[in-house]
Design brief:
There is one protein chain. The protein has 88 residues and is mainly α. It is elongated and about 50 Å long. The chain has 4 helices and no strands. Helix 1 packs across helix 4.
Amino acid sequence: MIEALLFDFDGLLYDSETSAYEVWRELYAEHGVEFPRELWQQQVMGRPPGASGFDPIAHLEQLAAPGLDPGLTHTERHRRRDELFPHA
């Protein structure tokens, strides 16, 4: 029987924002461009996935990687994030 549930909606117990940002920063760096933390904070941080309308894959493709495969990039992002935080 479940006696209690604990919800962590604001990152108090688990900092998912840092791992998500770090993975994107690494992916951008591989293409020779910077992903400023300020952009992450303004466009993504604190919002549910997809709520801001900002698409890091499209942004990266526009900056430095024409023809980027979104599906492959998405898969790689998840793989790296799981390496950082396997329980996420």
